[in-house]
Specification:
Order of helices and strands: EEHEHHEHHEHEEEEHHEHEHEHEEEHHE
Largest sheet: 9 strands, mixed
Number of helices: 13
Shape: globular
Distance between the termini: 46 Å
CATH topology of the largest domain: Carbamate kinase
Strand content: 15-25%
Radius of gyration: 22 Å
Helix content: 25-40%
CATH class of the largest domain: Alpha Beta
Length: 382
Amino acid sequence: MSIVSLPEHALPPWRRAVLKVGSNLLAADGGGLTSRYAQALAGFIDASQRAGREVVLVSSGAVAAGRALLRTRALPGPELAAKQALAALGQAPMIALWQSLTERPVAQVLLTHDDLRNRRRYLNARATLRELLMLRVLPVVNENDTVAVDELKLGDNDNLAAIVAALVDADLLLIASDVDALYNADPRHDPAAQPIGHVPQLTAQIIAMAGGSGTGVGTGGMRTKLQAAEKAAAAGIPTALFSGREPTTVKALEADCLRGTLVDVAGNRLQARKYWLRHAPAGNGHVSIDAGAVRALTGGRASLLPGGIVDVAGEFHRGDLVEIVDANDRPVARGLCQYGAAEVRRLAGRHSRDIASLLGYSYGAEVVHRDDLAIIAGESEA
């Protein structure tokens, strides 16, 4: 498909992105995996990291790699079990492919949707990914298909990428596939189909323009990509759809130039997240903080540390949304707590460096991380 007529526009500003790479970009014609298109995408990741940005990679291709290893054998089990076996076989060569294309260490992170629906596992996954990014490691995320029951379904990695984008507080979701943009008709059948460069807001009419999977290698099509963009938009994250088969398109991304479709968000990401934190149901308890902590939270981009906590009321669990109040029980903020109520009681007034010795473990220096905090005193956006 020619990219000559594709619209070009600037990517939104971003510091952290999730890049999803589809199976069609990794599967070799004769079976197995190829670096033919992955090389340019890996180059974009490396260039982004050199520029001080962070990229999390969500990569398909494990089933295709596993199928190549068993190309001479029949798969006797049920279809789902066979796909799970192929995914288990193919994970190693898929990770090896990406490691061969970058000098940075590559880490494999296997997730299921159940991991991301469970608040405790959600927080653990996020903490792991954040730590990997701080270590300048390339996280390669995939479905944990080996143990999943219903995750091997149409477009699961597109949707997983959107969930991961929200998980790591990404500024941008990038979806690379063998399709260069969203079109107003199916370009495989309609020569008059025109690309759509900018989608200000997803509507039923826009989603209806999308079709299914174009080949037998991938598990999704444009419809699942738009579904992923819809999930990302709900978290305030725009989505860029582009062809990973065009090296000039991939190279242009390094200069923040998109040749494809940008699915925008209504409002901005900060507003969407802050609104949710302010209005979502809170747990059965609150944390009282001293005047210094009140000033730190309301005066800037500070996290809530143990030293500023003076009291804990009620019961809540790790990952619950809790109220944060001052000494007079006036609301100051709301946030997702990294520790349960019993743990916070033990940590109150202590230094962050004492967490591991007091509890025997640590989920991080912050009781509530600034990314999970919404100030409500004076309706500040700090």
